[in-house]
Amino acid sequence: xxxxxxxxxxxxTIAVAGCQEAGPVCADGLATGIExxxxxxxxxxxxxxxxxxxxxxxxxxxxxxDARQPSIPTVDLSLELRNHASRPxxxxxxxxxxxTLKLEGPGAIDIKRPGMWCxxxxxIIVEAGKSVSVPLxxxxxxxxxxxxxxxxxxxxxxxxxxxxxxxxGKVVRLRSNPVRLKVVGGEQNEGEATRPATGW
Length: 200
Hints:
By secondary structure, the protein is mostly beta strands.
């Protein structure tokens, strides 16, 4: 995907390949022409609790100093914001601060970990007819602390995203399409390293 970056008055302007598909989705029901799409590049994953019972895995995940904690589940997803409208869209926060992710299923749980951003980030402008994509290798976002979506049992899960952007200075709330993820039983290598959540 081709990207062009430019800095103007403290704003980061992103010009990406133009959008071809229609289908805006917005939580407040307005036909804004702005689409939030959640894309599953892989939809089946293997449960890996490093041989621990679910309750013990949660305790270790919540203790950031516990070196014995199992890996936070990794995924192969992306979140895409498409601007089908005739006006630019502003993402007022960091690229991985403006959205949240909700995981639902038989063993879904949110693990919160303390953290903070120390470096200011410019706002992001998505021009009319363009799009921007956020790769996700964990079900994670930042809301005062880092929130990680995890699964504790095999089964069928549903993941969706919500976000807020600005159009002409007004907040537009968006909701993505839901994606179905399948978690199968089995343990991976207990020593597998946990990868950090990625934004832009």
